[in-house]
Specification:
- By secondary structure, the protein is of the alpha/beta class.
- The chain has 5 helices and 7 strands; from the N terminus they run βαβαββαβαββα.
- It has helices at residues 22-35, 55-59, 77-90, 110-123, 140-159; strands at residues 11-17, 43-48, 63-71, 74-75, 98-105, 126-127, 132-135.
């Protein structure tokens, strides 16, 4: 505070999620709803489809939440494409970036989780929240889990905890 002036710094949470189905669209909507909770006031949430996201989006983010489907025991092609395009431009420039992820898995999601963690370990991002694996038949619990994950990520980034 300087002479009664309070400066508010807005931080940016980036959500990158592929949405090939109505259920995955529901999940990304839950993520945005959680990240923009009314009690979280000083964070800008940018939700960008993976094929449109650029390295500059990541470079300008204070945290990132990634949503992917499990495809043949691996992350979606769109998320893999995102990582392929941003990896080298972000390498060494985004070390310590807090991240989390949710995986919509028809099976168990472990292969997807391992693959994502391998890429992210090279980027040296910090896992801020446990990865949420929504496995099996779609349930409304997945919506709440993703919304809570995004709300916690957003609040943590806003507060500088992560």
């Amino acid at each position: 505070m300087l002479d009664g002036l309070v400066m508010t710094v807005h931080k940016r949470l980036l959500i990158i999620a592929n949405t090939p189905s109505a259920n995955t669209k529901t999940l990304v909507n839950a993520a945005v709803r959680g990240a923009t909770h009314p009690d979280i006031g000083h964070i800008d949430v940018h939700c960008i489809p993976p094929l449109q996201a650029q390295a500059t989006d990541v470079l300008n983010a204070h945290g990132i939440l990634i949503g992917t489907t499990e495809n043949f025991g691996y992350m979606s092609g769109e998320i893999k494409d995102f990582f392929d395009r941003i990896y080298y431009p972000c390498l060494e420039k985004t070390e310590g970036l807090p991240y989390s992820c949710y995986i919509r898995a028809g099976l168990d999601g472990t292969g997807t989780e391992i693959a994502i963690k391998k890429i992210i370990s090279g980027l040296k991002w910090n896992q801020a929240q446990p990865i949420e694996i929504c496995k099996g038949d779609f349930t409304d619990d997945f919506i709440e889990q993703v919304e809570t994950l995004a709300m916690t990520m957003s609040a943590g980034v806003e507060a500088g905890i992560f």
